[in-house]
Amino acid sequence: MSTIATEKPLTTDITAWIESNLSTTGLVQDLRKEGLSYFQQLGIPANKAEEYKFTPIARLLEKNFNFSTRNAEAKSIDINHYAIPGLDANVLVFVNGVYAAQYSKIISPATEVTILPLREAIDTKKDLILVHLGKHADHKADALTAWNTASWSDGVFIHVGKNTIVEKPIVLYHIHDVREGQTITHHRNLFIVEQSAEVTVIEKFDSEGTGNGFSNVVTEGVVAENAGLNLYEIQNDGGARYHYNHIHMTQANASRVNTFTFSLDGKLIRNNLQLCLDGEGIESHMYGLYALTGDTLADNHTVVDHRKPNSFSNELYKGILDGQSKGVFNGKIFVRPNAQKTNAFQANRNILLTDKATVNTKPQLEIWADDVKCSHGCTTGQLDEEAVFYLQARGISKETARAMMLYAFAGEVLDAIKHPVIKEYIDTIISERLHKNF
Amino acid sequence: MSKDNQVLEELTSKEYEHGWTTNIETESAPKGLNEDIIRFISSKKNEPEWLLEWRLKAYQQWTKMVEPKWPNVTYPAINYQDVIYYSAPKQSAKAKSLEEVDPELIKTFEKLGISLTEQKRLTGVAVDAVIDSVSVATTFKETLGELGIIFCSFSEAVQKHPELIKKYMGSVVPVNDNYFAALNSAVFTDGSFCYIPKGVRCPMELSTYFRINAANTGQFERTLIVADEGSYVSYLEGCTAPMRDENQLHAAVVEIYAMKDATVKYSTVQNWYPGDKEGKGGIYNFVTKRGLCAGDGSKISWTQVETGSAITWKYPSCILKGDNSMGEFYSVAVTNNYQQADTGTKMIHIGKNTKSRIVSKGISAGHSQNSYRGQVHIMKRAEGARNFSQCDSLLMGDKCGAHTFPYIDVENSSAKIEHEATTSKIGEDQIFYCLQRGIDEESAVALIVNGYAKEVLNQLPMEFAVEAQKLLALTLEGSVG
């Protein structure tokens, strides 16, 4: 394995930051301390570290953040400005990492689902917290996850009981109020979906103001037998957000997980998405679309770990890169020795619109079982000029023709969204990005 | 005996057919690596001062470097002080013609099917034969000389054509390129050198045959091919080693320099001793191979069939610097028992309208691990670059592993890159079909594997293709069921 290069001075600064913010009481204080000690051991990865080869996270943190000041004070915000229009859902709002009850509303009945800020759940749901928190997302291998484990300020606890389908989606708005300086936030989410239950969760990230914000979000959980989870990540923050997002879900027999990651704006977006298929007959779909412009860097690292036989995974990530943006994709598929009859597919397709934009992709298959069907494909190219010409010949302007083609390219991911309101909203923001106005 | 029977017999007979040793008197340097050893090698080879300095500089660099740990292979730490860096068959003076070469040596190569004398009449392949550290014979020198082609051992080239060596050695693989390239630069003992002049099409295949004979030695040879404007050459490389319980190190460097409109085709059938069924012994094959398409319209094509070595770790690469230049990489890597392979290629597109094509077929059986690792890098000014990559893996048995690590880095919007990879196993229906037609399971597997690898085998020159096919079957023998 690659040796992990680290940034020493920065690690020391951040360690001091963690220590000054570390809460030493409560149920999870041992876990927090463990997180801190692993963070110190691992250190912030330097540019040479394989997993962060194209994402200079150390440099960006060093340049843009001061680890000796506190977060900017959160003032009142207009939540409607950020809300997904027309979506009838449970809403939880976090401003600068703190749960804002005044903007939140939970409409699903308590018999259907337990939705709590994690801080509250620590007191009221001790048993489940002790079983699951810190048990799925690996803070022993990744420094940023370790940092989150030590420093999370709040997050969401979702528990769906057996045989329940949660009708209304749960939306988490993560807002950085950076009107008066920088903010550094750590969120921790825990999702427990019991047998034959189903739930949809949406996370959306926005900034109020122009200051720098660093968010470190770790989501972990289990999807039990025959249960389902739909997870949407909407990363369209026009502010100076540096976003690290780590999702780790463990799946049991015949469970279904669908993830959708839309990366549209921000300074840095790093997604670590890991699905651990620890059962048979599982179906997992991972969809991603990154349509970037300006100097945005979006780095998607995904891991599908097939541990048992007879499961299916499918991954489709598409990228449209404009301006000086940078797209990074690393998709790992592991098929463990006894995971026979696995079907795993992965595709990554990119369109480069300018010479200043770059794409670095690394699809990676690691297979230790022989009776499997695995494939990956990846392409990088540009719009088919002949097709653009075809449209132009029919009286459509070049700009519109290109926008149409890009929209169609993105369509493959959009089509996979089942929820009509979410689909419409994402369609709108993507059309906006692609200047589609026909 | 019909041809089929012969193939069958070969299939079912022994494990590694080149595992014998020859008793020839050798002259060796003491074990270990230090500046004195390098001076010793240099003086043995009667080298000019500049080359010794070059070596010492490389050694200095090497001592500052650390052995890379990123390949997907595991092996116990190599003790670089426990290796003999120079071992040569004893010869009174450098043989002037084949008649003067030790008959035992000629027999050695005859046994390997590389008859140094017969070759002249039969196949029309010019051979440079390298045993342990030195080149023992080069055939067809005169015929090639008439066309102005220089084909000789590296040491001879150092003596006779120092200006060419000085100019091109290290121009493609710099001394400090990587750990093993630096080691090789410090201690390389021989190898082949080839220069094709302007506009000449080399009329025959040129070939180097490497053989490790002595125990405890490492082989460090260097090959340098310079193809001048508009020339063409096809180059073959073969290698074998005796069966020994300890691991032996082979760290070679191959450099290809292609000028405007030149074409170089480099084919390897690598059959180093892979170790026994328990994974004991075998060669560590850590090789740096790189070609530079320096001129416009040049082309470098690598074809490799990797069946041997306990550990294979090499990435024959192309730097596509000239506009409209082209790089190709065709590979079949087979691993069985406890073999490990981490192999692939790098295609660095610098010039405009450069093209590259990668076809890699991995086959793993037994407890082996087979990795493809490759990079396609399209630089900013590589307008209109085009790449197609395909890497397939075939798994036989549930104890082996297949891994792919392709890196695709694109910095130019007019580039078109395609990459696809699949992993599968031999279908039971395919085997059944063969069984029905009276083809036993072992032959069926050989048949299917050969079909799977055909795209690559087709790129090999005829003589090699036949050998490679047999080798594939042999390596996989006993891996079914």
From TrEMBL, chain A:
Domain spans labelled SUF system FeS cluster assembly SufBD core: 181-409
Single GO BP term: iron-sulfur cluster assembly
Top-level taxon of the source organism: Bacteria
Domain SUF system FeS cluster assembly SufBD N-terminal: 25-170
Pfam families: SUFBD_core (PF01458), SufBD_N (PF19295)
TM regions (residue ranges): none
Family: Belongs to the iron-sulfur cluster assembly SufBD family.
UniProt protein name: Fe-S cluster assembly protein SufD
Gene that encodes it: sufD
From TrEMBL, chain B:
Xref: InterPro entries: Fe-S_cluster_assembly_SufBD, SUF_FeS_clus_asmbl_SufB, SUF_FeS_clus_asmbl_SufBD_core, SUF_FeS_clus_asmbl_SufBD_sf, SufBD_N
GO biological process: iron-sulfur cluster assembly
Residue ranges of domain SUF system FeS cluster assembly SufBD core in the record: 210-451
Signal peptide per UniProt: none
Chain ranges of the SUF system FeS cluster assembly SufBD N-terminal domain: 142-202
Domain of life: Bacteria
Annotated family: Belongs to the iron-sulfur cluster assembly SufBD family.
Official protein name in the record: Fe-S cluster assembly protein SufB
Native organism: Pseudochryseolinea flava
